[in-house]
Write a structure and sequence with these properties.
The complex is a heterodimer of chains A (about 325) and B (about 250). Chain A has about 325 residues and is α/β, with parallel strands linked by helices. Chain A is built from 8 helices and 17 strands. In chain A, a hairpin with a 4-residue loop joins strand 8 and strand 9. Chain A is elongated. Helix content of chain B is about 30%, strand content about 30%. Chain B has 6 helices and 15 strands. A 9-stranded mixed beta sheet of chain B has the order 11-10-9-12-8-1-6-7-13, with helices on both faces. Chain B has a two-stranded antiparallel ribbon with strand order 2-5. In chain B, strands 3-4 form a two-stranded antiparallel sheet. In chain B, about 50% of the residues are buried. The chains are: A alpha/beta (about 325), B alpha/beta (about 250). Chains A and B meet through helix 3, helix 4, strand 7, strand 8 and strand 9 of A and helix 3, helix 4, strand 9, strand 10 and strand 11 of B. Strand 9 of chain A pairs antiparallel with strand 14 of chain B. Chain A: Pfam families: ETF, ETF_alpha. Chain A: This is Electron transfer flavoprotein subunit alpha. Chain A: Belongs to the ETF alpha-subunit/FixB family. Chain A: InterPro entries: DHS-like_NAD/FAD-binding_dom, ETF_a/b_N, ETF_a/FixB, ETF_alpha_N, ETF_asu_C, Rossmann-like_a/b/a_fold.
């Protein structure tokens, strides 16, 4: 079977799960597509999952209420072994890329990380992935009775429901106790659309001028056009914005339909996080800013003058 | 405690990356210690300076001869000694973790520090895979850390925010921006570092095979429209941009 570990939050199946189902269908690997849903009170998620999978395995346990890398790795490994999985697909989220290597080691399986394309080549699985700050696309290959891969969010189209819903089965899991004690959690809530799901992102850099300008122009434009808000590392380091908004090598990787960069110079570390966006729009008063080299539409000008006009005009 | 820090060498972020044949060609490229690993090295030094009982800090690198330079940087920053496993073979992170685990065991390491993501592989797997090989817990994307005896407390980023943690050694910690500000090696320390031990090991003495084959590499730059709008009249520029986004790119309703 092809085992896909469902990603979900707030009682809803994540878009990344549907993307992984497409990756599984594309991969040409053998066996039914099996979604594994881990968590507590996940009945609704399991029903959503059944619409796109041949079967759904449900681990609904209090011990799975909180994600933990050791616990998740043990659960996924157990099911991969029992089901003799040929392929294990895990989301390329921060948590997915954290426990997937542990699954690969436990299964003594090769690991393909953060892949953007998958295809079967005989017994092997061939993949493409970005390297060197997303400046290079590499083709890699692994073979073996079982292969573990994480799938980069946004790289595959979300799967549509396939005919009849898959059967759901409750599973028993033998879980370890985590050795890490979590002493407090702070969830970064935003009323805006999450960066990973946003179709449009408005990002501000140091060129915006001040935290007040950021709120007025970057947030103002984002709210007007229903976009998510991003920030560069310089802006986060300066304390203007929370880390959760940072886009780039040390922040989030995004590929929205439109990425609007305001006062962003375009350092390579930033480009590695947003360079795959479908359309890049840049406004910066420095005509030499590297962001213009990757922009589809660019305006050389002052953010403080152009963005208010943009906000006003987009209201019409 | 004994700390093992992992050091990789990557192109300077501003350096041009080129591909020849089926792989990235680093000849003539300026190479530096991976910035994220540097946070790990710095944190090992700060744990010691902060009063934790740190007996030994070792830097480990696996790679070609020139990786020595990155190890010299770590030595000049203040690590006690270095181990270089010299090879031109390219090992994926999960395979490489086998070496890390063997070295950690041989050295009696109880804490491994490394970067959260390697800037050459764009991979986050080395810390997690090493932790699993050793049967240790791992905390990734850590931006706050302190030690009290054998207990580490800190904060790290997770999918939907961040959380405080407490863990007993042994453990693997991956570092990131915000954890610290790495120091620059001073000239006296660079001189002192020349006398520190830099041991060379053979890859052959470790039981490791690559699990992933590298078939090709391409620099794919997406062709961008590069359509520039005159910004002298902000009003006209804004309207022209909106028109293009609505009617040409079709990204706005």
């Amino acid at each position: 079977m092809i085992l896909v570990v469902a990603e979900h939050a707030g009682g809803k199946l994540g878009k990344s799960t549907l993307e992984m189902v497409t990756a599984a269908r594309d991969s040409g690997r053998e066996g039914p597509i099996t979604l594994l849903v881990l968590g507590q009170d996940v009945a609704a998620v399991a029903t959503e999952a059944a619409a796109v999978a041949d079967q759904v395995l449900v681990g609904d346990l209090p011990a799975l209420a909180q994600y933990n890398p050791e616990v998740w790795a043990a659960a996924v490994t157990q099911i991969a072994r029992e089901g003799e999985a040929s392929t294990v697909l895990i989301g390329g989220s921060r948590s997915g890329r954290e426990y997937a290597p542990r699954v690969a080691v436990k299964l003594d399986a090769p690991y393909l990380e953060d892949v953007i394309k998958l295809s079967a080549e005989g017994d092997a699985l061939q993949a493409q992935r970005y390297t060197f700050l997303a400046r290079v696309t590499e083709t890699v290959q692994a073979s073996g009775p079982v292969i573990v891969a994480t799938v980069k969010p946004g790289s595959f189209a979300p799967a549509a429901p396939a005919g009849a819903a898959g059967e759901q089965y409750d599973i028993e899991l033998d879980l370890p106790t985590s050795r890490t004690e979590i002493t407090g959690k702070s969830v970064e809530k935003s009323s805006r659309v999450a960066l990973s799901e946003a179709e449009i992102i408005v990002t501000g850099g140091r060129g915006v001028g001040s935290p007040e300008n950021f709120a007025q122009y970057v947030e103002g434009l984002a709210d007007n056009i229903g976009a998510g808000v991003g920030a560069t590392r310089a802006v986060v380091d300066a304390g203007w914005r929370p880390y959760a908004e940072q886009v780039g090598q040390t922040g989030k990787t995004v590929q929205p339909k439109a990425y609007i960069a305001l006062g962003v110079s375009g350092a390579v570390q930033h480009l590695s996080g947003m360079g795959k966006s479908k359309n890049i729009i840049a406004i910066n008063k420095d005509a030499e800013a590297p962001i213009f080299k990757v922009a589809d539409y660019g305006i050389v000008g002052d953010v403080n003058q152009i963005v208010p006009a943009l906000i006003a005009a987009s209201k019409k | 405690m004994k700390i093992l820090t992992l050091v990789r060498q990557v192109p300077d972020a501003e350096a041009r990356v080129k591909v020849s044949g089926d792989r990235v060609d680093l000849d003539g490229t300026t190479l530096v210690i991976d910035g994220m690993d540097e946070y790990g090295v710095e944190e090992a030094l700060r744990l010691r300076e902060g009063g934790a009982n740190v007996e030994d800090i070792v830097a480990l690198a696996v790679g070609p001869k020139k990786v020595e330079d990155a190890l010299r940087t770590a030595l000049a920053m203040g690590v006690d000694r270095a181990i270089h496993i010299e090879t031109d073979e390219r090992l994926d992170a999960v395979s490489l973790s086998k070496i890390v685990a063997q070295v950690a065991q041989a050295e009696g390491t109880s804490l491994i520090l490394l970067g959260g993501q390697e800037a050459d592989w764009d991979s986050q797997a080395l810390g997690a895979a090493s932790a699993e090989r050793l049967g240790w817990p791992q905390l990734t994307w850590t931006n706050e850390l302190s030690a009290d005896g054998d207990t580490l407390t800190g904060r790290h980023d997770v999918d939907d925010g961040n959380e405080g943690f407490k863990v007993s050694l042994p453990a693997v910690i991956t570092a990131q921006q915000g954890l610290n500000e790495p120091r620059y090696p001073t000239l006296p320390n660079i001189m002192k570092a020349k006398k520190k031990e830099l041991r060379k090991d053979e890859l052959g003495s470790y039981d490791v095979q690559p699990g992933v084959q590298y078939l090709g590499a391409e620099i794919q730059t997406r062709a961008r429209l590069n359509r520039m709008i005159d910004g002298k009249d902000p009003q006209a520029a804004a309207e022209q941009l909106l028109d293009l986004l609505r009617n040409e790119a079709k990204v706005l309703a």
